[in-house]
User: Fold this.
Amino acid sequence: MSIFGQKDASVQHKLSLSAYVDTYFAGYDNDLNQQEFQPFITVGARDNTFGVNVAQVGLNYMHEKIRGNFILHYGDIPQATWSDEFNAIQEANVGVKIIDGLWLDAGFFATHIGTESFLPKNNLLSHTMYLTFNEPFYQAGAKLSYDTLENWYIELWALNGYNNFVDNNDAKSLGTLINYTISKNTSITYTNLYGRESEDSSPIDQDRFYQNIYINHHWNEKIYLIAGFDYGFQTNSDLQETNETASMYGGMITARYQFNPTFSVTGRAEIFNDKNGFISGTVIDANGNEAGIELTGFTLGTEYRPLENSYLRAEVRNTRASDDLEIFMKNDELTNNRFEVLFTMGIAFEQLFGF
Assistant:
């Protein structure tokens, strides 16, 4: 076996072994038992606790005509957010090349929807947005991907449904991902997903169309900007008029200043509005009415990278729900505000082999 990357004409098969661990300590002024997960939280979900967000291992196989991907994970992120049926499987899929640049893959995947990943290592901040918490995390189905057009990358998806490994009805959902590279420093990506989300036994059909668009931009290796916006609607889902279409939206902007290769500061502002609760679920508001979730959040964080594949981060976030959504508890009193601190440490590595 030879290390992939050396000039060896006999190398046809490429195997990548990867591993990733992220640990945390988190603190919240929302009074919950330490065994409970904080609501709407992906990373650092337990209060006043040292924990493991994720520990994962993966194998990726690549050949000129076939490829495969298999990732197992464990930790608070899978427990808080992942499928109950296949909680330990992050991804398991196989792909076949149809023609140059065109691949067909099928199996279990991480979602193609969203401005950021659910894994801290892939984001500028470890805190994930409320949009990310309510977007799909995982999906089962098949995709066609095409990458030989200059500056363009395209995916077409057929899926079991929104955030499903196992389908809840006999309908299938369709989605796309379109990425355009404007310049070496700027790209724009659009994703969507459409399908029926109601169960077969439901007397009404609830069709959901979810869209996401985001821009990545950086210059001078110092300043990084990400801006994203989500908009979705679902038929027969309005809380007041159940036969009317309900809509939701959310947005974010993140800015990072990279002082040097090892130290940076990042800030983010976000908004999430799902007043009919067809994505986020519903709660009882201060007036005794059923209501969806409406939140704004502001996050500030620092990152130190002793090596390129590792990081130490310290972050604070303040969250405010709409005035009549007293969904948090502080000093035995209901409130619409939550303050949190989060410390994370992570390391990831990947080793490539050829044979």
